[in-house]
């Protein structure tokens, strides 16, 4: 069994891991004393609340897994996982939040790369499965480890945290972030929202950055409301700004042309080059041949002729 040490809220300044945790909080995190609603407060005020936003909107330093069963505090040990940096337990039912600190924060969109974000979503999903955690937990708010409503523990886990690659060795990484908003949870929501909104940005380009933000934000909000636990508004805005920043600086003319040529090539591979048939169909139509007969002569159906623009004269 790994060493487990009880931490006390009033003495958090003397705990290296709790000091790191407070330093890593957003300047104005979301917080609340009751589930169902939350508000934004300064860090000094927010750390007095029962629940708090664990990560900054554009940077993830902690993976939080919500476990709703009596063995929650030790489930990591039974599942042969690395010891977590924090265990925050509800003394009334023994349910707990298991918290893993990342040695290198994952930056969310902006100038960040998509690959680390998708790996983050996969590792989080793998940890949730291994810990028998709540798959619907959104991660927006966590039990505040320096609030005396909870029992907080630490282990001999490295104070600097773990890399995503290290954590990924202990869990299944089979999870692929879904493109269905109703099925997304955790950091899979960030991937899903980005994938759902970015095609709109490509279609709206070229436009100015401000125009794209204005046009994409309502679209992102609509998709975000389909999540069981929607992202906070500032997280949505970071994703919108990231898409707008890229689309406002990118000329899609060549890519759109290339895509059109690819679609044309695919169509020819599937249906063949029908240019000669179209010309012949036009000739017969001008000679008064009926549509049904033209279709039979060319070996195509009438819907194909309609798609070619060959229609009976009224």
Structural features, described:
It is a single chain. This protein is α+β, with helices and mostly antiparallel strands and 314 residues long. Helix content is 42%, strand content 14%. The strands form 2 sheets. The chain has a 5-stranded antiparallel sheet, covered by helices on one side.
Question: What labels would you give this structure?
Answer:
314 residues, alpha+beta, 5-stranded antiparallel sheet, 4-stranded antiparallel sheet, 12 helices, elongated
Layout of strands and helices, then pairs:
Blueprint: E1 4-7, H1 16-24, E2 30-32, E3 39-40, H2 43-46, E4 51-52, E5 59-67, H3 75-78, E6 86-89, E7 96-107, H4 114-130, E8 142-143, E9 151-155, H5 164-168, H6 188-204, H7 209-224, H8 233-248, H9 253-271, H10 275-286, H11 291-298, H12 302-307
Antiparallel strand pairs: 1-9, 2-3, 2-4, 4-8, 5-7, 6-7, 6-9
Helix pairs in contact: 6-7, 6-8, 7-8, 10-11
């Amino acid at each position: 069994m790994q060493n487990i040490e009880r931490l006390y809220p009033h003495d958090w300044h003397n705990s290296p891991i709790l000091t790191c945790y407070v330093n890593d909080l957003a300047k104005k995190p979301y917080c609340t004393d009751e589930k169902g609603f939350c508000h934004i407060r300064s860090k000094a005020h927010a750390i007095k609340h029962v629940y708090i936003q664990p990560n900054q909107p554009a940077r993830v330093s902690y993976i939080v897994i919500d476990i709703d069963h009596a063995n929650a505090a030790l489930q990591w040990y039974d599942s042969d996982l690395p010891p977590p940096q924090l265990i925050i337990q509800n003394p009334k039912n023994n349910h707990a939040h298991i918290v893993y600190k990342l040695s290198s924060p994952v930056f969310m969109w902006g100038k960040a790369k998509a690959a680390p974000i998708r790996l983050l979503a996969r590792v989080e999903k793998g940890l949730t499965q291994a810990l028998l955690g709540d798959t619907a937990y959104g991660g927006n708010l966590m039990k505040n480890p320096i609030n005396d409503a909870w029992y907080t523990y630490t282990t001999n886990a490295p104070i600097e945290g773990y890399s995503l690659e290290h954590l990924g060795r202990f869990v299944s990484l089979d999870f692929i972030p879904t493109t269905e908003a109703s099925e997304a949870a955790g950091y899979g929501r960030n991937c899903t929202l980005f994938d759902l909104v970015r095609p709109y940005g490509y279609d709206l380009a070229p436009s100015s950055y401000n125009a794209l933000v204005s046009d994409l934000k309502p679209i992102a909000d609509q998709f975000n409301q389909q999540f069981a636990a929607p992202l906070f508004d500032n997280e949505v805005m970071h994703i919108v700004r990231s898409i707008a920043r890229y689309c406002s600086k990118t000329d899609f003319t060549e890519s759109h042309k290339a895509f059109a040529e690819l679609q044309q090539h695919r169509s020819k591979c599937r249906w063949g080059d029908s240019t000669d048939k179209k010309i012949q169909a036009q000739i017969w139509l001008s000679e008064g041949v009926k549509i049904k007969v033209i279709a039979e002569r060319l070996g195509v159906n009438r819907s194909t002729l309609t798609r070619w623009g060959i229609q009976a004269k009224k």
